[in-house]
Amino acid sequence: MLEVCNLSFSYGEVGLFQNLSFSLNSGQVRVILGPSGSGKTTLLHLLAGLLHIQQGDIRWLGQSIRGQNEETLAQRRLRFTGLVFQHHYLQAELTALENILVPGYLAGAVDVAWGRELLHRIGLLERAHLRPNALSGGERQRIAVARALYNRPKLLLADEPTGSLDRRNAERIWALMLSLAQDLGTAVIVATHDEHLVQGLPELRLA
Ligand SMILES: Nc1ncnc2c1ncn2[C@@H]1O[C@H](COP(=O)(O)OP(=O)(O)OP(=O)(O)O)[C@@H](O)[C@H]1O
Predict the structure, then answer these.
(1) Structurally, how many domains does the chain consist of?
(2) Can you give the residue ranges of the ABC transporter domain (predicted)?
């Protein structure tokens, strides 16, 4: 499903990682750990096809993303990946439900019933009509997770998804993200500093 082959990346003279290889099947989880500046965000951006591959290759469903034109890649990305960041990046002028539907609009397939089902699964159906500024930080992040999974992506990429939340909310979002992804057969790659939260999960450690 995802294959990473001999991936190396540097910013100028500064090498971040070298000859990184791993693969992931549907529904598998991998945690990227490493100190600040080790390249966790950079690796996630490469996996999402948002950064130019310098050396090595990344394959989505057996097909390389290296050197693909931006338009084709953007279309593939919409279906293949969902992204969650530390900040929710919800659209302030849209309601909770409308925010969840955004990936559907972009992919040309909006299913309001599925959006409401996702809202139900994250426990926020009764807040469907509210805008982000009327929601708590944890609620906004739950919506960001649902939005990322709307197109039933093969791979969910999450960069410090619980980094701005308190412990209780962090644990809740974490459990929710994994169980929703598992239900959809979506593989998950999470970069985090929070080793407590991810104990026991398969990891990839950057130096
Ligand atoms: N566009 C860029 N140009 C030059 N250097 C960059 C650029 N983006 C990031 N870097 C550097 O690359 C290194 C890795 O950055 P990255 O954000 O991938 O690390 P990280 O492991 O996610 O860090 P953190 O845990 O602090 O978020 C850092 O030293 C950073 O300053």
Answers:
(1) 1
(2) 2-207
